[in-house]
Amino acid sequence: MNLDAYRIADEPYYRPVGNEIELFAAAYSDRLPVMLKGPTGCGKTRFVEHMAWKLGRALITVACHEDMTASDLAGRFLLAPEGTVWHDGPLTMAVRQGAICYLDEIVEARQDTTVVIHPLTDARRILPLDKKNELVPAHPDFALTISYNPGYQSAVKDLKESTKQRFVAIEFSYPDAATEAAIVVREAGVDEKTASLLVAIGERSRNLRGHGLEEGASTRMLIHAGRLVAAGVDIRSATQSSIVLPITDDLEMRDALTGAVAACLP
Description:
17% strand, two-stranded antiparallel ribbon, CbbQ/NirQ/NorQ/GpvN, ATPase_dyneun-rel_AAA, alpha/beta, 11 helices, five-stranded parallel β-sheet, 9 strands
């Protein structure tokens, strides 16, 4: 299969907040598997897209979920007019042809599914296809990247230590206020004053993490609010729809967030 559909033609906008670009490039140069750790909506996926573009590599992204099986990653036999035919899964396609495979929010997948990546993350760099009785050696350009939100750790949903320790980890968090405001200006098309107000609201919500909220407002949420404002929605309604209502169903917490929003607005 041709990988052209998985190549990123235009540079994805990304504002670095540390040395993550240099770290990822160094890891890729030695084909080390990379784990991106950080809260939801802080730019992990955009970062991978930016690095795939920067390195000139195709990017195959898999959104992990609890019903995902090893066959969903590796492939399966399917019935076709000519008989039973093997179809490579996204991971196998990346391994064979030399793409970056990005497993987004890998903690959502079952632990018995994620072990399929283990032989790809050590010196062997092979993918066993048990159903096909085949060992697929990784293409020289193949690299594996996963994302992981430590905030969702629990006894049920967490990565095995045997999986974590196979990766180079790059930690992500929300940018400083000035950088985050610049991102909102660029991505939402609002002025600096509006972007700064949205960032202040985001910071207020993040201060409530652990006090009724599992997560504060992500940079993605602030961009959504900004886009509503750019489309003509007043900022109070925009933040209510993009931040307050999506982030919690608890009525008392909604009131607290609404108050935090009101305190930031003129």
